[in-house]
User: Fold these one by one.
Assistant:
Number 1:
Amino acid sequence: MHEEVVEEPVLRARERRAWEPGNLLKRLGLTLLVLAAIWAFWEGYRAVWKATGWTRPFVVDDLTMPPMADIVSRLWEPLAEGQPPLIRDLLDKSAFTMREALAGFLLGAVIGFVIGVAMHHSRLLRRGFLPYVVASQTVPILAIAPMVVIWLGGKGLPVWMPVAVIAAYLTFFPVTINTIRGLDSAEPRALELMRSYAASSWEVLWKVKFPASLPYIFAALKISATASVVGAIIGELPSSIQDGLGGAILNFNQYYSLDPSALWATNIVAATLGIAFFGAVVLAERLVVRSAPEHVA
Amino acid sequence: MSGVGSTEPPKSVGAGFADAGAGKSAAAAVTMTGLTKTFAKGGTTALQEIDLELQPGEFVSLIGPSGCGKSTLLRIIGDLVEPTRGTVLVGGKSAHQARLDRDYGMVFQEAVLYDWRTVAKNIALPLELAGWDRSRRTDRVKEMVELVELAGFEGHHPWQLSGGMQMRVAIARALSFDPKLLLMDEPFGALDEMTRERLNLELLRIWEASRSTVVFVTHSITEAVFLSTRVVVMSPRPGRVAGVVEIDLPHPRTADTREEPRYFELATQLRELLRGRTAEAVH
């Protein structure tokens, strides 16, 4: 009497299999292969430009493009005589920046979501304030950051607090835009059904609109995750914070001609931090939206 | 098959009408008076002067070509659309009050299941909103799952089910809170013929067990004849009632009902009404 159960959508099954141990190993192998390819491309580019003496788009030498081996090995060398290896210092600074970025990310995500919900519910708010939300993002963060530092600095707040606010400033925008879009994505019929159950608008929001918006919100959180790291690094500059990656980047920038590998090494660490943030959001998405298939959106 | 209520299924519709005849308006499940709907855009008249009365326990189909306003009529009854003129009373209340009192179970052409909820949690949604506690919800969900013969699929997600199974979940969800009125808008329109016929039988069984009043929109003549106690034929532009046909086929109906001469007569009668000819059995 029963119809047969329809197969799991092919894409979904494939994605789930991708997380099985054997496939994880395969993915690790792929990652290593890609890293090797990047390494090979870097060194190949250097070799070709050096051999031919091409000067466009720029002259290639150990200053403009240090050998990859130098960059990586620089991580294990001390900053100065008798100090711990650079990687120790950079990891400490990463932890500091990560705290700023994480606080900023959470703050921005919550604020972004709340603004999104408010704008979803009020056309007046949307019409009136959305242009200013957009405008807020066209002002360069470098122009905003010093003001935030002046406003929030020296109020007994932790020194990284203004930086977190700057990171939040970059984080909230995608979340707001996608929350508005996501809440609108609930099917009209699904909403009519809720109306027929005499559901309150609060119930409609939490039981239908919010779950329907999750794929959109997570798409925004992925953008925000990396943006919050960038925001934290840039936010450190006007605050003259030396304990984070921003301070390190500024410092190594000044000594680039003496020690180019240090800046490149720092960039690699900063990029790794951004990837870690991104990965954390992807993981959270898998845990939260695991019951909703890809075609929900 | 489960027993929702131990009452005997009605043997024929005749008895139901006899009860209802006495009280008239007060006892009517739905009373529509002078219902007119004009859409602001382009000034199309979707419905014109609809007067209809549905008795409790009836299974009434609205049939007509597309654009005759049958879905609009259903949505006005369900307080999803406001009529331009006229009134709807549902069990003596306004449609708005009836909706707030959760008197409607709605089923649309698509199952409209919430993908992030399992079968059980989809069925439980209206119960959650009505403030039922967990144990009561669990009991009712179990009952409903058995009623629509989906036991064993409670933990499945909607996308793991076939179209017919999804529709059964939608029906179970619509019936879960014992609504007085079941409003169905072409629920089987998107299904293949075989699934549709099987679900027709199941719907009749469920209706007989639950004894709720059903308003059923369809564009299938045979489906209307097979399911209904009465069929309202509508004509398009503007949507009006072209005729009402009593379906006097005995209950319970089975697959054999579709072979009976009376079944074909009634289908022919509906077909002619739909073509615009005057049939003798106009109510």
Number 2:
Amino acid sequence: MSEMTYRDAINLALKEEMRRDPSVVILGEDVALYEGSFKVTRGILAEFGEERIRDTPISENTIVGVSIGAAMGGIRPVAELMTVNFALLAMDQIINHMAKIRYMFGGQITLPMVIRAPGGGGSQLGAQHSQSLETYFMHCPGIYVVVPSTPADAKGLLKAAIRDDNPVMFLEHEGLYNSKGEVSDDPDEVITFGKAKLVREGTDVSIIAWSRMTLTALQAAEELDKEGISCEIVDLRTLTPLDTETIINSAKKTGRAVIIEECCGQAGLGGDIAYRIHHNCFETLLAPVTRVSGLNVPMPYSRKLEKLCIPQVQTVNNAVRNLIYEKAKEL
Amino acid sequence: MEKTMRSSLPDRELLSIYRKMLLCREFEEGCAEQYTKGHITGFLHLYSGQEAVAAGATAALSNEDYILSAYREHAQAIMRGADPRRVMAELFGKATGICKGKGGSMHLFDPSINFMGGYAIVGGQFPIAVGLAFAASYREEERIAACFFGDGAVNQGNFHEALNWARLWELPVLFVCENNFYGIGTELHRSSALTSIHKRTCGYDIASEKVDGMDVLAVYRAVKHAAELIRDLKRPYLIEAITYRFRGHSMADPAKYRSAAEHEMWKARDPIPAFASRLLAEHIATTAELDQIRKECIEKVAESVKFAEDSPWPEDKELWEDIYV
């Protein structure tokens, strides 16, 4: 094991997979010479040369479309969209093409491709650069959606994504790039999709989270622990496939569940998970399932206002206290 | 000056092209009949009138070259070698269809013959064709990606992104615009500031030409030449084939936006009788031989309809297959 940042863990996963498989090619805006807007692809041009890592025009829909064609033609492209917000320019290729090609062509082709896209709020980047769009991709069958929260998961899940024969949206959180953690040195260690991780065991309440919200949940759990409230935390790691079993088992065990999501609450994933828990654990629940979600507003720039939009440790704590003391109310 | 057809191709291949054009015409007219009977449902865009484009192009390309098209793609698939029976079964939504009945008329696909798909979002195939060309280039294969599209697609951003990208990366892409003058009911001059589509490539430093898309040999020669240039220079090329669809945009379209006089003018230039006349004039075939080809094509379509009718529906469990590997 080595300690490294989330950024370096992703970088290492890319390098290891490129060393392992010559058909892995990176493409994207400013990924090669500039080494990535977030410096995730640092050193890759130097090691692998310009055949293996290609700078592209600012043409997001075509970045995805070229990746689809390349995957059909025998390459394993790993495309970087500079931020997930730009994926909205590529939604035609992502939703209408990438997600459907295998199915509508009767299973005659596979699309082994990954789209890496950083996103999330909290850096005062304003309304157009702070979105959490994971549910957009979840709503469409045919795509895997991966949301790592730690350096170790980022490495293991990205390696799995590159080796997978299905198209994968690999959603990195910009606010996690500098976070550190222990990462496996084993180049063959991958993390299987669809297996949520119990990152903290507890007895009073289950907190369901993913990506950066897992860290918020962990901080909240530390504080609540001092009050005598024992939190269990489930980090989903992949949203499609979704590990419903682990969620349900935890909710059954604690009898209470809070879902924390950075994306807007309206039509958000939290509502879907709450349904799954209610449907499967109704008899054993001690309180209605609740959610702490991003507010339904375009992200404001001002530091003071932005903070209100994103679930904070304090809001999570309050939600958990409300549940425990049976004062749950609609958020 | 026009050369004899024999100077371009041997008799056997000329007759093969004629057979393909006729088979596709009969196939499309057979589809129209089956649509009217309710056996084919959904959207159905027929190719009748444009056969010279697909026939000339598929004859000039190598079978290793990729072909991609839009949603009016029955002919490109069949001329490349797709089994008409399985194409018809696909249109019927049967389990024996070329895509197991999951694609339909607009989504034919057969990688065994390098037919890489019919796409129903206008212009969606552009970047995919560029990606296939990139894969071929990366893997040091000699393939070209031939991307067919209509005049309606050239105002999509995808078109311009793909042209720029293909030239920038020096990729072997042949763009084939089938200019039939109408994007559904909107005539070209009402949608495009520049109606000479082939001239648009100058903004991307891509060579291009306009060709008579009702003359199969003209298309053949243009594509042959373009393919040689693409392979030699490792650069894309664009051909604008001027053509006309004899039917509406789809079976739901009575095409009232076109005048009868215009329609008649183009019908008089029907590429199939025109080609037949030349085959007879140059003594490449006799009337009896051409009649025999027609009879065989009609039989093949009847056989395809029978195959589709007799085929089973997909099983319900098929619904959940092929979403993921």
